[in-house]
Amino acid sequence: MVFGMGPMELAVILLVVLVIFGPKNLPKLGSALGKTVKNVREGMEEGSVDSEPAPEPSDDPVQQ
Questions:
Q1: Spatial separation of the C-alpha atoms in residues 10 and 3, rounded to whole Å
Q2: Which of 26, 33, 41, 56 is the most exposed place for a label (fewest CB within 10 A)?
Q3: CA atoms of 15 and 2, how far apart (whole Å)
């Protein structure tokens, strides 16, 4: 089961998508969806790196 749906539910969803977008547009739709997911993942990774605090400079003259 994917997302709590059985094979019949997935088949119906696939059929509806096929009817709405047509067989010629499905590769374009899949490519656009894949690029979107990739960009979102990269953005989330960049956001987690940017959110880490930078070390604060020390005023201690011994460490210089």
A1: 10
A2: 56
A3: 17
Q: Report helix, strand or coil for 1.
A: coil
**pLDDT confidence tier of residue 12, bands split at 50, 70 and 90:** very high
Tell me: pLDDT of 49 over 60. Answer: yes
Dihedrals phi, psi of 11, to nearest 5 degrees: -65, -40
Secondary structure (3-state) at 2:
strand
Instruction: Please state, rounded to an integer, the average pLDDT across all residues of the chain.
Output: 80
Selection from 29, 8, 6 nearest residue 17 by Cα: 29
> In this structure, what is the dihedral angle of CA atoms 24, 27, 28, 31, given to the nearest 10 degrees?
180
